[in-house]
Amino acid sequence: MKKPVAAARSQPKPGAKKLPASPQGKIHPVVIYPFRQPGSYSDLEGLYEMVARLNKEKDKYARPITVIDRKTTAALEGNRTFHDFRKHTIARHSDILDAWCVDTCQMWYSGLGMAFDRGKPDDVYWLIPGDFNYGSATGKEVLSRLHDLPEICMELQQDICVGEITTDHAHPKELIDSYGTFALLYNWFPTEAQEIRGYTERPRSEFFAVRHGFLREMLRQRWYAYEQTMVMLLQAVFAEKHIARFEVGRICDLPEGRESLASVMQQVERTERVLKTLWRERHQPMSGWVEQYRGLEAQSDQVRRTALITLQSLLG
Amino acid sequence: MRMNSYGAKPVNLRAINFICNAPQAQSVSLVGDFNQWNAYSHPMKQQPDQAWFITVELKHGHHRYAFLVDGVLTLDPRGMGITRNDQNERVSLIPVS
């Protein structure tokens, strides 16, 4: 066997950012309670068994936070099962943040913001979406892997670690990202889109962990009501942050089949809306940006229409 | 359970198998944080099925690694994650529990 060809691999390239050693901080779990209460509590029971374990590991984890949209609570007024679950399970193992939120990403903003206010510079914040099938066998396996996300941020000094779920190729999430999200990303931010795709096929993932410093930067910028993971990935690429992606397994968000064509269209349209706004914010200080914007907008219109025709054929 | 280099505190190590499917390669080695990305410390052996193989004992935690296939840094398609190393090259991630 020939010796490996290795040209001075141990010498860092000039300008390469060496990961600094860091004292151990705490991990702040932030659970996003499902907007629509599922009929069965088995998935939430599976999730809160994990939250209970985290709550006991006080050296490693800060007290978990659960964000509940007040519309969810209002819709469940008089529901004894929900109130018992809230009192005996959620409140026991986590601090509850009741908030009025326009969309899920505002729940993220409220929860991560509250955790950030309690945090310190070496801490890591871990977002845990509540509306997944954690009660199933595969869901339990995913639950057992989620802790890797904040640990990767902590151990390897990553600014953001995105969890990637595996789905069937025909799953609406995969189709939306293939034909909608990435097509639009390549139109508005082609260089950054290429970089993001080098890490993940799921730029809208709801599973992620983020370091204190990067979260501070994100909280101080415009926080979008939707598609915030994609925005965070773009901001991470703009600022040359350390990005990691980790597979968390195969899982479905609940309820199954919620991706109606109308919902799919809305997701593509709002992705485009976010990208347009972000592009304008970054480019409006530059002269001649309006002309460039109009060109990209015309292309974007075509990309969105094509994506919707494709998705209608595949899902309609 | 092994002793660390000072022979004092025990260090938990777990044997991890790495497989690289590169049948045409002349040489393949495993590089990562655990060997300071040294191309020579973990040469892989080609198996009868032409895949390259090595078992390495790693401590608990998350490790960055890649295959050096004929000198070219190559991601592990079976890897559980992706990040960048200190030289800003894309590399794979493995959790060891």
Strand percentage of chain A: 5-15%
Number of continuous helical runs of chain B: 0
Structural class of chain B, by secondary structure, is mainly beta
- Which outline of chain B best applies? globular
Helix content of chain B: under 10%
| Distance, first to last CA of chain B | 13 Å
**Biggest interface: chains and residue counts?**
A-B, 32 and 30 residues
Range of helix content of chain A = 40-55%
Mean pLDDT of chain B: 91
What is the assembly state of the chains in this entry?
heterodimer
The strand line-up of the biggest sheet of chain A is 3-2-1-4-6-5-7
Largest sheet of chain A, in brief, is: 7 strands, mixed
SSE run of chain B: EEEEEEEEEE
- The radius of gyration computed from the alpha-carbon positions of chain A, rounded to a whole number of angstroms, is 21 Å
Point out poorly predicted stretches of chain B: none
Topology:
The complex is a heterodimer of chains A (316) and B (97).
Chain A lengths: L26 E6 L9 H15 L8 E5 H6 L4 H14 L1 E5 L4 H15 L5 E6 L7 H10 L1 H8 L4 E7 L5 H17 L1 H8 L10 E4 H8 L8 H11 L4 E8 L10 H23 L5 H27 L1
Parallel strand pairs in A: 1-2, 1-4, 2-3, 5-7
Antiparallel strand pairs in A: 4-6, 5-6
Chain B lengths: L1 E2 L6 E2 L1 E8 L7 E5 L12 E2 L5 E8 L1 E9 L2 E3 L6 E4 L5 E7 L1
Antiparallel strand pairs in B: 1-2, 3-6, 4-7, 5-6, 7-8, 7-10, 9-10
